[in-house]
Amino acid sequence: MAFTSHNINHLFINFLIFCTFCSCCSSVNDTITSSKSLKDQETITSNNKDFKLGFFSPINSTNRYLGIWYINETNNIWIANRDQPLKDSSGIVTIDTNGNLVILNNQNGTIIWTTNISNTSTNSTAQLDDLGNLILRDINSGRTIWDSFSHPADAGVPTMKISTNKVTGKQIVFVSRKSDNDPSSGHFSISLERLDAPEVFIWHDKKIHWRSGPWNGTGFIGSPITLTKYLSGWHLSAINDETNLIYTFEDKTIFAILSLTPQGKLKLVEYKNKKVIFSITEEKNECDLYGKCGPFGNCDKTSVPICSCFEGFEPKNMVEWNLRNWTNGCVRKERLKCEMLKNGSSEVKQDGFSVKHNMKVPDFIDFIDSSDGNQNKCGTDCLKNCSCLAHAYDPYIGCMYWSRELVDLQKFSPGAGVDLFIRVPAELAAVADNKKKKGHNNSFIIIPTVGGIGALTLVICAYLLWSKCCARHKERHSQNSIMRRQKQMKLDELPLYDFKKLETATNNFHIDNMLGKGGFGPVYKGIMEDGQEIAVKRLSKTSGQGIEEFMNEVLVISKLQHRNLVRLLGCCVERREQMLVYELMPNKSLDAFLFDPIQKKILDWRKRSNIIEGIARGILYLHRDSRLKIIHRDLKASNILLDGDMIPKISDFGLARIVKGGDDDEANTNRVVGTYGYMPPEYAMEGLFSEKSDVYSFGVLLLEIVSGRRNSNFYNNEDSLSLVGFAWKLWLEDNIISLIDPEVWDACFESNMLRCIHIGLLCVQELPRERPNISTVVLMLISEITHLPPPGKVAFVYRRSTQSSQKSHQSNSNNNVTLSEVQGR
């Protein structure tokens, strides 16, 4: 076809018209007007292409909601009609005659949702901006009439705010969903309260669920974990009568969504280049619950029980307190001297203070003095006022004073919280001061607890020795011994179960009720008279483990509380039997799924990933977060139990050791215990163990979970490779992808699977100093920010035959070796 000048002009004109049309479309693609509506199945997109507004349906639901999302619908940051869902795809969004943004049912014209602003402009538009904010503006003046950031749902993004107006009481709050798949308003909300010393509160319906403590210019002094992990992007400002907590990031290339989950927890997901680089959900402990221990009650997650009364205080209701109903709190044993003077007493002694370090400050600060205050001035001023019951000091806030019952007290780890000075009679203050000078712990509640542990140990060991040597007198003395043991058990708050009841609950330990068998002995399912399901671990008479492991498990696990550790309910020491009673894990152990050709299909990658992270968090608690630093020494798939929701729980603490010291401290033992294949070389060969021993075992377990294969299996008879050796061989051949279990391989998760293998190889490196500690491992698992170095030489690449291994061991080892069975519990 030959082009004439006429044709060229015609094409040029058409091209200009097309460009103008595209330009017009582009300019309004982020806008809704009275003449440009938005129907279901349509979306508008922000100018930077990061955000979309449109209708969506949650998973397993046909309800339709108007929402704003980042990248895709699963990253929803705002919902309009969360409590008025459409039942079908008949929704339409438009500007009504009053200038309000509305959602209509297009079939009958019913208004489903509206911005409902009075005195709006009749000439308005709604635009989705580059921050993800939907803004309703007056076209003529440019004035903002309404915006979605001021009416949030359950999520916050950069530049959003939580605010409270001191005069009007108007608040901007986040409200959780009812469930993950139901975006309607749930039971939890988050707001800004106590504006004289602003604090973030999470509410459960109308009751306080959690509070952050007051703002000190850089963070919240009553929330060290939340400060570092979740609220590090918040900044507080006060404009006129309104106090705002604004969510921003210094690194503008990072986008983050902070949401309030249906369970009342904070979840943070960070993105860079539209890819997730960090995701974490807050873990609360019991002490984070508001007022857990009642007025004047101190909550310490590292103590057992977690609630205690300070010196000079006692439980208000001893019966309820012993039943672990701590809501009534504590009361003073002795009145303050100031009160006596006020009431005409001739007593002249003054009151003093008992200092509590690393504390969350109580709720209801009555007065703040920020005028050149210091700690000494706070104390002096407090003693001048008989109504002042406690004080604390922060350089930014100044002196804080309390004149009512001290509520929501919590003991933090060293380096967090503040020093709280509680007013007590002068004599008690002097006693506390003397104890402090002598290096004693100033909390008397520790003494009977430690005494109880020691007494419990001695009584049980003495009884078992007596019963072994003097069996002929057993019947005559058994009842008195049981009564004595029960009395001592109560000191440790660990229930002592009656043998007859356990026998009945397990149908006389019938084989049909056996859940499995391990080195300790068989484990039976039982149902108590009240319907409670339990698991009873019964020490076998032929077990390689015995009273040492039994006592070790009692004393170790009874002090531990974590969602990824199995919970010990009690024990039974009767009729020459030693039994441990646990919560029942309906899905038994991990190995029952992982290494079964049929059952392993149940463990998709999401489940396996959650199990990996749960095990790592359980180990982190043992190594860093519990009151006792514990090395498990027998981590393996058969010692990972799964509850009804497939949440992993570490079990079998009979071989665990309590250690003291720093990260790299090693201990030595002449009795090597555990399971070959999971032991690191320094432990199996030299008896040296440390935190890195558990890290090695976790690395083996991680490789097993990803590959679906036992470490003890042989993969190449010629080379006699273990799983660790096999993985290392594939790594060197740049073929590590072939290690992934075909049952779970998914292209969507391949990078995550390969990352887990990489982490596993880092954990099983030959030298302990090269292995990461467990806190680093957790960060590697939950965040792609962490750079993963290449793994060095791994341990135990090659396996010897069973026979040669045994001969070598018998001839060269000076250690007494205890093997724990691999096949399960």
Essential attributes:
5 domains; single chain; 825 residues; alpha+beta; 18 helices; disordered C terminus; five-stranded antiparallel sheet; eight-stranded mixed sheet; Agglutinin, subunit A; 47 strands
Explained architecture:
- The chain has 825 residues and is α+β, with helices and mostly antiparallel strands.
- It has five domains: 30-150, Bulb-type lectin domain (Agglutinin, subunit A, Orthogonal Prism), CATH 2.90.10; 155-284, no CATH class; 288-444, no CATH class; 448-583, 2-Layer Sandwich (Phosphorylase Kinase, domain 1), CATH 3.30.200; 590-819, Transferase(Phosphotransferase) domain 1 (Transferase(Phosphotransferase), domain 1).
- Helix content is 26%, strand content 27%.
- It has 18 helices and 47 strands.
- The chain has an eight-stranded mixed β-sheet, with helices on one face.
- A hairpin with an 8-residue loop joins strand 4 (51-56) and strand 5.
- The longest helix has 24 residues, at 5-28.
- The protein is globular and about 85 Å long.
- The termini are far apart.
- The model is unreliable at 15-28, 438-466, 468-492, 714-718 and 800-825 (pLDDT under 50).
Main-sheet strand order equals 26-25-33-29-34-31-32-30
Number of helices: 18
Which percent range describes the beta-strand content?
A: 25-35%
Helical content stands at 25-40%
Q: What is the correct CATH architecture of the largest domain? A: Orthogonal Bundle
- The CATH topology of the largest domain, please? Transferase(Phosphotransferase), domain 1
Shape by Cα distribution:
globular
Give the overall pLDDT as a whole number. 80
Q: Largest sheet, if any?
A: 8 strands, mixed
CATH homologous superfamily assignment of the largest domain: Transferase(Phosphotransferase) domain 1
Low-confidence stretches: 15-28, 438-466, 468-492, 714-718, 800-825
> How many separate structural domains?
5
CATH class of the largest domain: Mainly Alpha
Number of E-state strands: 47
**Gap between N and C termini, in Å?**
84 Å
Q: Helices and strands: which structural class?
A: alpha+beta
Rg estimate, integer Å: 32 Å
